[in-house]
Structure formats: structure tokens, C-alpha cells
Amino acid sequence: MFSFSYLSTCILYFLNLFISLFxxxxxxxxxxxxxxxxxxxxxxxxxxxxxxxxVLSTFLSxxxxxxxSVHSxxxxxxxxxxxxxxxxxxxxxxGTSHFSFLPIYLSYIYIYIYIYIxxxxxxxxxxxxxxxxxxxxHAFFLPHFLPSxxxxxxxxKHKAxxxxxxxxxxxxxxxxxxxxxxxxxxxxxxxRLIGMAQ
Length: 198
Description:
This protein is mainly alpha-helical. The chain has one domain. Helix content is 72%, strand content 8%. The protein has helices spanning 4-34, 36-41, 43-63, 67-93, 102-123, 125-141, 146-158, 192-197; strands at residues 162-169, 181-188. It is elongated, with a radius of gyration of 18 Å. The chain crosses the membrane at residues 6-27, 34-67, 73-92, 104-124, 136-156. Keywords: Membrane, Transmembrane, Transmembrane helix.
């Protein structure tokens, strides 16, 4: 029988993981409205992969005593997949007229801040300080999605090809776990959709 503290930790990790997936699922649905072939070809696979990782991570969270370690590497896997796939897809096929998805990221940041600071810090101060504060620092002081969209904006503005190299440093709460470093190289090509339409 699990203790209340362990069960609450698992639930909070599950919630944190779901929040990290929400923007990508939202963008997938948003893109599917505008590009029907994307819905037919990619969205079912894309969503099934995310849900599979979500279920697997939740299951492992209940079984593993190294909860922080498991969550860190699964979150890193999701972040890398999301960052590479969506960045390349958006930069290749979307133009300036499709930048209305940015407000959802702003609202997502506000929701993130509210949940992390107000709820977690108020009701679970020890869990907040040991597990979620490093994730909060990573999400806002080492942002992993802003560089790509900044590069997309610059490539649209200057109508040029920009090579963006992004270094991701995943912060872990377990000292014995090495800090994984991910280097992303994105070849950002924009205006292709506009060119095809012309």
C-alpha cells in the first residue's frame, strides 16, 4: 500500500507530464484543421506515441523507486521528439499567417506559473522544492521552445535559411544521474507554403 506522500508525488508527476504534452497535442489539432493530409498521415501516429509515453511513464512512476530519474529521462525523450518534429514541420510548411498558435504558448506559460508556484508551493512545499523547482527553472530560465520559434520568425522576416543549434540541458533532481545534454541542429526553411501556393 502506497503512502499518501508517494501517491501524491506520482499524481503530480503525471500532471506535470500532461501539462508538458498539452501544447504539442493542441498544435497537432490546430494544424490538422488547416492541413487535412497532416491529420490523415501524421496526427494519429503522433498522438499515439505521446499517449503511449504518457501511460508508460505513469506506470513506471508507480513501480520505480527512482521516480525523479525515470521522469527526467522520459520528459527529456518527449521534449526532444516534440522539439525536433514540430520545429521542422512548422518551419517548413507554415507561413506568417499561421502564427496565431503563439497565444496558446503564452497562456500555457501563465498556467504553468500558476500551477507551479501557487498550487504546488502552497500545498506541497517539500515536493515543490525538491522535484518541481528544477523543472520550473528549466522551463523558464532555459526555455527549449523559444529559440526555434525565434529562428522561424527571423527566417520568415529575412526570407533566408537559418541554421539553429540549440543546446538543451535537462536538470535532474537525483545527484547520481548524469545531466543529459541534447544538441539540436535545425535547418529552418520558411516560405515554402507560400511559394507552393504561388
